[in-house]
Amino acid sequence: MRRASFYIIRDMIKLSDVNHRLQKAHYAVRGRIVQRAQELEEQGRKIIYCNIGNPQALRQKPLTFVRQVLALLEYPELMDGPAAAAFPADVVRRARAVMEKNPNGMGAYTQSAGIPFIRRAVANFIERRDGIPADPNHILLTDGASKGVQAVFTLLTNRENDGYMIPIPQYPLYSATIDLYGARRIDYYLDEANRWELNEPELERSLAEGKSGGVNPVAIAVINPGNPTGAVLPRKNIGMIIRFAKRHGLAILADEVYQENVYGEGLEFVSFARVMHELGEKEVPLFSFHSVSKGFLGECGQRGGYMEVRNLPDDVFAELIKLQSIGLCANTAGQITTYLMVDPPAPGDESYGLYEKEKGAVLGDLKAKAEILGRGLNAIEGMSVNIPEGAMYAFVRFDLPHADGTDPAAMTPEERRKYEAARDNKYCLRLLESTGICVVPGSGFGQQPGTLHFRTTFLPPKEDITALVEKMKKFHVSYVEKLRES
Question: Is the pLDDT of residue 432 over 70?
Fold first, then answer.
């Protein structure tokens, strides 16, 4: 006798079944306009991608020393045959030293916090950079800075009303992570008229507004040098932020991934750790992030970085280690690349001259392109930008007439936000379709009500940056004329 078979037939997963927090999250730098750019590129159009800080995708060459060491570590047999003669002696020595300290090789898991000798190298790097002590036991190696930021959000988000102060404009990692983790935003506006610095009365205003809305503030995020602004914060501004955080019992998330990218005359990168040490501050928790993706390495695909933690009890830091162990460890190639970033060739090494030459060429080129872009856009009527002092971006302000007679002042804040987002999105989409220039609407980063912006990188080659300025001028003039005629 045959047995009847019964099958439970289930409907396919629908969008309504998907995590509502994931649906709420947005990441503007890879959004709808970028998707349209890829469609146009498939149709044969030349696209100038200025939407994301991805240096090597825009023809920045990898540093020879980094790739040579990685090549030997990925295929150690090269060190024992005639092929070894193709590599400088210091590269071979460095690869052998790494193998001695990490004998399990590139294909094995490492300690959850990261390979110990690399954590010590990071601590030494911080001590050389800042002239202050650093504890390797409070350093975690991460898959890029983003994973470190997300780890801190996991650590600190404990209640549904926990909130984070984030800069506006901001890098969408922060707003997206807040949405994913079910936390709350407390937006504070950067001061565009004052080189995008943080303004203490504005910090107090935004914090008070957040508290009045039932938010429990736990931390403030600061990006220095700035993304998307290209600003470099002075020591005085950093000291104000630290004192503000202490006054209100906040932790600080210091996103310092662009610390090598400083171009403004007389400017220097000053770390939060350094200023905190100078102030003798031992109560404000500090989480600092760095990455191999930016600077002059541009090794985005290696996914390497670190997080340094200060003023956090050992038992709390242990929870970060536990979180890292759940994901096993950061990828080994990224950890090695981080090591090579913080411990580059030294004077006397065979690779030193070429390394310094390549480094100088990358940074010098970025500085020149920042000037070309900034001065060129400022010469366009209806556009203005603070010439980037650091990082890889410019946050460009542009003016458009209200040809349809709309009065934004009569709108509710939410209506106005949607109206302005529609305007800058339409502008950037038309810019892409008319010129092939792919930028990101300012609404994806946040902006002051009544203003319109877009973010652009200055990573493409110089000839593309020069062409970009000319194309943008023609497009903007034409776009504004059509609005006025409509």
Answer: yes
Identify the domain boundary among 317, 342, 367. Answer: 342
Q: What's the whole-number mean pLDDT along residues 437-457?
A: 88
User: How far is residue 148's CA from residue 426's CA, in Å, rounded to a whole number?
Assistant: 34
CATH of the domain at 403: 3.90.1150.10
Q: What average pLDDT does range 61-84 have in this prediction? A: 89
Domain count, the chain: 2
373 and 453 inside one domain: yes
Residue 216, pLDDT above cutoff 60: yes
398 in the same domain as 277: no
Residues 77, 79, 81, 87: is their CA dihedral positive or negative? positive
Specify the pLDDT at position 47.
Answer: 87
**DSSP 3-state of 220:** strand
> 342, 376, 397 — which closes off a domain?
342
DSSP notation for 362-414? HHHHHHHHHHHHHHHHHTSTTEE-PPP-BTTEEEEEE----TT---GGGS-HH
> Is the torsion defined by CA of 394, 47, 26, 286 positive or negative?
negative
CB atoms within 10 A of CB 478: 12
CATH number at residue 182: 3.40.640.10
**Per the domain annotation, does 249 fall within a domain?**
yes
User: How far apart, in Å, are the Cα atoms of 146 and each of 84, 458, 469?
Assistant: 36, 22, 31
> What are 230-244's pLDDT values in tens digits?
899 999 999 999 999
- Residue 378, sorted as left (phi over 0), alpha (psi -120 to 50) or beta, turns out to be alpha
Own/partner contacts of 88-94, CB < 8 Å, gap of 24 or more, are 88/349, 88/350, 88/351, 89/350, 90/345, 90/349, 90/350, 90/351, 90/352, 91/65, 91/350, 91/351, 94/69, 94/340
Distance CA 55, CA 48 (A): 13
Q: What is the pTM of this model?
A: 0.88
Bridge partners of 255, per DSSP, are: 223, 289
Cis omega (within 30 of 0) for bond into 169: yes
Same-domain check for residues 294 and 336: yes
Same domain, 313 and 178: yes
pLDDT tens per residue across span 185-204:
999 999 988 889 999 999 99
Tokens, residue 294: 């930016």
Strand ranges inside 121-225, DSSP E: 139-142, 162-168, 184-189, 216-223
Token output for 113: 């916090």
Residue 415: helix, strand or coil by DSSP? helix
Residue 70 confidence (pLDDT): 95
Q: Let me know whether 338 and 370 are in one domain.
A: no
Range of the domain at 180: 99-342
